[in-house]
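Take a look at this chain, tokens included, and explain the fold to me:
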Amino acid sequence: MAKHEEQKPGGDSSKYLGNHVITTEAGHVIEVDNSPNDRRIHIFHASGTFIEIKDDGARISKIVAKDQEYNEDGKDQKITGQFNLTVDGDVLMHVTGSMKTEVKGDYELVVHGDYRIKSAGNHLQETGGDERVQVNGKTSHRSTGDREHITGGNNVESVGGNSTTTTTGDSVNMTGGIVYRDWETD
């Protein structure tokens, strides 16, 4: 991922006659530069907040205090090329409707702390290929309702330690083939 580098305002080849600048008593600056190969528009607030549009159409902005944006009629944003977002703080995304994320390539999520998913409704997961889960600690599965495990192919369970199964109701095991127990295979 590319690292974000802060851009500084101002051109390198401004010509005096092509550069029109308005400076106020408070220190605000509006600059319209028509210099060949360095055309730009620069709006600078005395606080340090600025926006600049460079000769090639690149836009640079810096906000030194809180930035707020309100849109009453939807928003579409398209980025052609790489998009990097760095947040040096917490992020809260509040969606009052549905949310869908679609990725046409690979998707990787790296969490350096705890990871929690909480769903007030059903949790459905579908994988079109293989699924592999590696847990380097304890695994616990608790269901307050029924649990059903269906395998369309072979089922192999390997336990490196003790295995205990407790059933407080009936237990039914059905086998359509031969059952082998390790004490019977000698």
About this structure: The chain has a mean pLDDT of 88.
